[in-house]
Design goal:
With 170 residues, the protein is an alpha/beta fold. The protein is 24% helix and 36% strand. It contains three helices and nine strands; from the N terminus they run βαβαβββαββββ.
Length: 170
Amino acid sequence: MEEVLISEEAINKRVEELANELYEVYKDEKVVFICTLKGAVFFTCDLLKKYKGRALIDFLRVSSYEGDHSTGEVALNLSISEKNIKGQNVIIVEDIIDTGKSIDFLYDYIGNMGPKTLASCTLLYKEEKSTAKNKPDYVGFKIDDLFVIGYGLDYNQEYRNLPYIKALKK
Ligand code: IMP
Ligand code: MG
């Protein structure tokens, strides 16, 4: 049996806590949640179902991983319209911060569109490994430098549909 790192119950509980934490900050202000495809799709949906404030949702897609390693290059595969960002409270929703390259790229990309405020919320954070300039504002779980799958996270596009998170055995 492969070991479950974070159970479905633990994920649900933490996602609800994060939604409440965000609501305490933004209250009745409008917030644009940017879901970074594909990995953050499960997290974003669950987070927003628990979020009690005024939420808009948009999507963008970046990629930097091949199999289980980072290529070090971040490519934008689906962009977002500046008119949806300008003057808004924006939260980038990520599945995981690993090297930190993607979140830094996204901060520059969205930051240049003139949001009123910009923050990031990630389900998982490899804090020890990450060299991100832009530290995440809201973190679900800090994890060690393991390659993890499930709840949106993939290995060669598989395993995203697992309802829990586990480490991939080599
Ligand atoms: P970065 O290295 O922080 O730029 O992370 C880029 C992206 O790589 C993440 O958003 C994930 O999509 C993917 N990634 C990083 N670490 C893992 C992992 O442990 N499992 C699955 N995907 C990962
Ligand atoms: Mg991602």
